[in-house]
Specification:
The complex is a heterodimer of chains A (231) and B (238). Chain A contains 9 helices and 3 strands; from the N terminus they run H-H-H-H-H-H-E-E-E-H-H-H. Chain A has helices at 2-15, 49-80, 83-88, 90-109, 123-133, 136-149, 199-202, 206-213, 219-230; strands spanning 154-161, 166-173, 185-192. In chain A, a hairpin with a 4-residue loop joins strand 1 (154-161) and strand 2. The longest helix of chain B has 24 residues, at 69-92. Helices cover 39% and strands 2% of the residues of chain B. Chain B has helices spanning 69-92, 102-110, 117-133, 145-156, 189-196, 200-211, 214-225; strands spanning 5-6, 49-50. Classes of the chains: A mainly alpha (231), B mainly alpha (238). The interface between A and B is medium-sized, with 14 and 15 residues.
Chain lengths: 231, 238
């Protein structure tokens, strides 16, 4: 449910901007590429404009396109009662839908320095980080270590366990969204460690990418999410 | 191919002789397979096994314009090298896992689907060796001879096909199922991103049309034939 709500808010906002059509009549929602709240080059030198452009316009768009296709096929299969097709589509939905969910969060997790990027978290989230990890530096170290150690493609997350009201660091493989590690987990911060997220700039040196990305992390957004959940 | 090269080394290297060269009782590295030194004395020879970074069988710019020199430099010089060095480091601390050929090591560390930490490095070393050798300058075009026959046979009669196309994730390769890899194509983003950015389709098409080494594929299938029956032998009737 959360996934659809996130996407539908986006779609409603972008509706006016002549994006692909909302087929609300049939009950099937089509998703479209959310705009970034900053220009492609504004995250330099942490992340190059070239990477941001391809990452957004090509990779994320592809996930959305394929997600929409998979959902259409799912609707057909469900209407026909074709169970093996329904189940067979799950991996395409998890992969492409997950890609859309994850990247939508990722763009909001980033901000240029003059819009708050890199500014450490204060208030509730700041205290929670100190309580759960000791300090922001320690959190960053753990995230960097987990991100560097991740084999292949995946994501590193700062998650809120909303049942235990605790913060946790998690990794997911490929485009698995955070909820695959626990339905009670809310993503505060996600860092994409697929090679496409850094290769043109950092080549094989993923640790450098991780060290630098903290300069453009938008803690304001993470704080908002956190405060809403623990309220 | 990576192979175990055992270099007898002592903790205290012999002193320099007057001519400035180290005198050693062993002049050149000897190939020692599965030999473990049981000597406990600290001053005795300690046998260690290492895997080497083999170079692709062509110059780094030989695959241009289909795969750039820069890609070869980073892919081989950084990624592949890191896997080799990582593996050797892990093996230095593992008294059990040495003396294997690389293929045996992969199967052992795959551990039937519950891989040991060394698996990733071992498999990736092998995968990349195999990948470089799956390509050649002036590659692509059509396979010929027995390989082409087998491909056509499989297409015409898919129920009895011997060849198949498999996708594996991360480091997994068909060796773990005791299958015989014929061609390997690396589709990790690092393999194509510098040259093709996100356009994996273009990269794969280019590989098939301009890079794949059908010579290597044929040699591999010939070797595989020694293990797998690819057809009934023609036994003349007396």
């Amino acid at each position: 449910m959360a996934i659809r709500t996130l996407a539908s808010k986006q779609t409603l906002i972008r509706c006016a901007a002549a994006s692909p059509v909302l087929r609300q009549g049939r009950g099937l929602q089509t998703f479209s590429l959310p705009d970034l709240p900053y220009d492609y080059g504004e995250l330099e030198p942490a992340i190059s404009g070239e990477i941001m452009k391809i990452h957004h316009q090509k990779h994320h768009q592809t996930y959305i396109t394929n997600y929409n296709k998979a959902l259409e096929q799912l609707e057909e299969a469900m209407a026909k009662g074709d169970s093996s097709k329904v189940v067979g589509l799950q991996s395409a939905i998890k992969f492409n839908g997950g890609g859309h969910v994850n990247h939508s969060i990722f763009w909001k997790n980033l901000a240029p320095a003059h819009k708050g990027g890199g500014e450490p978290p204060h208030a509730a989230l700041g205290w929670a980080i100190d309580t759960n990890f000791g300090s922001l530096e320690i959190l960053e170290k753990i995230v960097n270590a987990e991100g560097a150690a991740l084999q292949g493609s995946g994501w590193v997350w700062l998650a809120l366990d909303k049942e235990l009201k605790k913060l946790r660091i998690e990794t997911t493989a490929n485009q698995d969204p955070l909820v695959t590690k626990g339905l009670q987990l809310v993503p505060l911060l996600g860092i994409d460690v697929w090679e496409h997220a850094y290769y043109l700039q950092y080549k094989n040196v993923r640790p450098d990418y991780l060290n630098n990305i903290w300069k453009v992390i938008n803690w304001k957004y993470a704080s908002e999410v956190y405060e809403k959940e623990v309220a | 191919m990576g192979f175990p090269l055992a270099l007898p080394s002592s903790r205290h290297p012999p002193p320099l002789a007057s001519h400035g060269l180290r005198s050693s009782s062993i002049d050149s590295p000897k190939l020692v397979l599965r030999k473990r030194c049981l000597c406990q004395s600290r001053r005795s020879l300690k046998v260690v096994a290492y895997y080497g970074l083999t170079t692709p069988p062509y110059e780094f710019d030989a695959l241009e314009p289909y795969m750039s020199k820069r890609t070869l430099e980073v892919h081989w010089g950084k990624h592949h090298r890191e896997y080799v060095e990582g593996l050797n480091k892990q093996l230095a601390n593992s008294p059990v896992l040495y003396g294997y050929t690389l293929e045996e090591l992969i199967r052992a560390t795959y551990n039937n689907g519950n891989p040991l930490p060394e698996f990733n490095n071992a498999a990736q070393v092998w995968n990349h060796d195999f990948f470089w050798e799956s390509m050649q300058p002036g590659g692509g075009k059509m396979p010929s001879g027995g390989l082409l026959e087998q491909i056509v046979k499989d297409f015409v009669n898919p129920e009895e096909k011997k060849l198949s196309i498999v996708r594996t994730s991360n480091a997994v390769c068909p060796l773990v199922w005791r299958d015989f890899p014929i061609i390997g194509l690396d589709v990790w983003e690092h393999a194509y991103y510098l040259d093709y950015k996100d356009d994996r389709e273009d990269y794969v098409n280019t590989f098939m049309n301009h890079l794949v080494s059908w010579h290597a594929a044929t040699a591999r299938i010939l070797r595989a034939q020694a293990f797998v029956n690819l057809g009934e032998p023609k036994i003349p009737v007396a």
